[in-house]
Amino acid sequence: MMALERMFFRALEALLVFLLAGMVVMVFGNVMLRWFADSGLTFSEEMSRFFFVWLTFIGAVVVMREHAHLGVDALVRVLGPRGRWVCMVLSDILVLGCCALFFWGTWKQAPLNYTNLAPVTGINMLWVFGVGIFTSFGIGLMVAARLVRALTGRLRPGELDLFAGEMSDDAAAHSLKGRLE
């Protein structure tokens, strides 16, 4: 199961690299075409914006897995294990609520986005903004799993320290090892 998860996130990281490279090529290519040929690719600006949207939302899921989102760890760092646990549980409940709201909003907007087409490429706008469903599920599942582990007393060693923004040598080594595999 862990190997499948690792492969899935590797594929997401490869997709992020593709999206970023695509943005760079489209924007730089369009600038060069406008500068030297006095023309440009009409779809380039629109597609680079769509790539940016996908890059942002897919990247949020990958960053959540790596515990790299911004957090207010100044308070949590001074708390003991019990205080960190309480903050983690409350934080996870709030994040799950935000994921539910984000999913619901994306779901409610889906019929509108389905009927709208992008002006230049003609892409159905649900393909652009529907990534919110993926993001809300991706982050929501990770947070729900951590919440279940916290409530059942099965948190991994060092997980509370990671939540508090502390990287012990073991946690840093494990994180680095996971990225290299």
Give a short overview:
With 181 residues, the chain is mainly alpha-helical.
Walk me through the structure.
This protein is 80% helix and 0% strand. It is mainly alpha-helical. Helix 2 (42-65) runs parallel beside helix 6 (131-151) and helix 4 (81-115) packs antiparallel against helix 6. It starts with a helix and ends with a helix. The mean pLDDT is 90.
Distance between the termini: 15 Å
Query: Count of DSSP helices?
Result: 8
Average of per-residue pLDDT values: 90
State the helical fraction: over 70%
| Total strands | 0
SSE layout and pairings?
Elements: H1 2-37, H2 42-65, H3 73-78, H4 81-115, H5 125-129, H6 131-151, H7 159-163, H8 169-180
Helix pairs in contact: 1-2, 2-6, 4-6
List keywords for this structure.
mainly alpha; 181 residues
